[in-house]
Amino acid sequence: MSSKNEIRLALHELGSLSERLRDEIIWIMRVEFEPIVRDAGMVLRIIPAIHSRGDLNIDFDSKSPPGKVCRTVLGEDGTGEVWVRAHREMRVCGNANPLTGKRDRRRLLTYTALLGRALANCAIHELGHFIADLYHTSQTQNYMQTWGPPVNKRTLRTQREFWGGHQSFNAEQRQRLVTQLKKREWSGDPISFH
Ligand SMILES: [Zn+2]
């Protein structure tokens, strides 16, 4: 059981990831999410869970296969599922080079720091839906952004920046998160809909 002013964030299935990747994800999620929890007057406890559920839960699913190349989905909104294989397989997928007729299909998230950041970004995106029912936005470098750069702007650099770059919540989103955390009510949770 959580104490009254504690929010337990359980990160499930981290055991199938390398230790470095696991540490990277936990570190980023703490740095990014703790200040928001603190603004709500709460203490964040991150638990790399095996069986126990937290107040908030993210599942790092390493089993689900990636979707079609260039049309992949990275997680499932509202469920707290983050798909690791889809992230690992994400590719540049810009327009075909007019000279060669070929598309750049290099993988993007080939370093632990990039992959860790992208997985943490996706986890925080899902928390945004779950805690405060936040909508998607077209604001760049925002946790609730989605879709990525348009096809004609996709290069290794822009795609890495988009998915593996630093993101944040804007003031309004942050306020909504703080309000829900204070009440400990999750507006994206189907169980609490009424
Ligand atoms: Zn979403």
Please give a structural write-up.
The protein is α/β, with parallel strands linked by helices and 194 residues long. It has a single domain (6-185), classed as Collagenase (Catalytic Domain) (3-Layer(aba) Sandwich). 36% of the residues lie in helices and 12% in strands. The protein has 5 helices and 5 strands, in the order E-H-E-E-E-E-H-H-H-H. It has helices at 19-39, 84-88, 112-132, 156-164, 171-183; strands at residues 6-12, 43-47, 56-61, 75-76, 81-83. A 5-stranded mixed β-sheet has the order 2-1-3-5-4. Helix 1 (19-39) runs parallel beside helix 3. The longest helix has 21 residues, at 19-39. The model has no long low-confidence stretch (mean pLDDT 91). It binds zinc ion. Residues 77, 125, 129, 136, 146 line the site of zinc ion.
